[in-house]
């Protein structure tokens, strides 16, 4: 946990025609477990394979085929639970969730509704400006993914791809602690960050490896506080679930438009019906998909082919002992050890790859200077070139060399930018560049003093102006830097000019 004090963000308030309304949001995030095999079969989970090529008999619902649990999936779920400071249930069990979809050949989805593997945990969601909210995790359970129905390949037929059928998912269910669209997006982003640090899910939302079902309801100001005191949901409005959101931007838009739909209904004297809805980004609206599972479209019962899942505490302890340093702890360490600002530490720990790269640059160097070069110079250039940190043309070691050269006064910050450009584009060693290109900073006081004396002697009128207005002394600095090809130590130049002009 960060050694910083936070205040809770102000809940989002939407003004209706009759009343002000607050939002209450809970999320069910489906994270694909980053194993190479599925939850109950040895079929591959590789993305982009030929349709229906990653399918075992059990995935296809063939008669007599029995599921066999993938131990690695269980380990990843435990690892995720521990990373979210959650309790691990040594006893859990699988249920069959029965419903008909063409892309669900078994006719049911194996899930853990009643006895999940992970219990209550929490996530600290930072909003910036000293604001953060602790979002409680209700549970995490393991379940199978369904296949994919494809409707746009033929005007008259639909196609089914079973490659995703049986892929292991972790459903991470939050309590209704989130109070606005921005908070919801920040929560998903933080969850994604933690999962990537843990290595249990790659967080790729474009491929569907991380997606969210968003539960939205509204209430009048003051009602949420009553719910928190009593945990009685009757103080809150009827919730609707928005299914399969895989974009931070769309999550925010869908929450806003759904909340306004509910407000309009209630203020018109109508009722909000609990149901599952879909968000249409083209029309910026939600539309009804089906009634909720409290209705009669789902049937749950214990899976007769799977024994209850029993795990040992010693095994859990071993997984916990091998957890990596997580984002909050890493951020706190960067702030404490390197003297970084909250913002810089947040940027550098946003992705585990960024953090690893920065630490390699900062090893034995000035942490603040290293952070400045990684964030401003490297990240800026990578973004311009549409490259990822893993594809950086310049290594962490070489940026560390540039930082060391600046720190030792071998080169100035301005020259360092030229060195960086050459090292980035030509794959050359910074020390070699400085030497062969004649970029070494002039620190010889005598040489710099001679250049200063020359400029002062040649510009008596400017000298008088500078004595009358010391701010004009900067002109002399520029001239000296120009005459030395930018190689003079700027600090020395400033000091000598101030002395010579009596400023």
Beta fraction of the residues? Answer: 15-25%
Helix content: 25-40%
Shape: elongated
Q: What structural category do the secondary elements indicate? A: alpha+beta
As residue ranges, the low-confidence spans are none
Distance between the termini: 50 Å
Which value, in Å, is the CA radius of gyration? 30 Å
**Sheet with the most strands?**
9 strands, mixed
Number of helices: 16
How many domain units? 3
What does this structure look like?
It is a single chain. Strand 8 and strand 9 form a beta hairpin. The protein is built from 16 helices and 16 strands. Helix 6 crosses helix 7 (342-349), helix 8 crosses helix 10 and helix 10 packs antiparallel against helix 11. The radius of gyration is 30 Å and the shape is elongated. It has helices spanning 71-83, 181-198, 223-230, 248-267, 313-321, 327-338, 342-349, 352-362, 367-384, 396-407, 413-426, 430-436, 445-458, 460-468, 474-483, 490-501; strands at residues 13-15, 20-32, 91-92, 95-98, 108-111, 121-128, 131-144, 148-150, 159-161, 168-174, 210-219, 240-245, 275-280, 285-291, 299-302, 309-310. The strands form four sheets. Strands 1, 2, 6, 7, 10, 11, 12, 13 and 14 form a nine-stranded mixed beta sheet that branches. The chain is of the alpha+beta class. The mean pLDDT is 90. Helices cover 39% and strands 19% of the residues. It has three domains: 25-307, no CATH class; 325-436, no CATH class; 445-501, Orthogonal Bundle (Arc Repressor Mutant, subunit A), CATH 1.10.10.410.
Summary tags:
503 residues, alpha+beta, Arc Repressor Mutant, subunit A, 9-stranded mixed sheet, 3-stranded antiparallel sheet, 16 helices, elongated
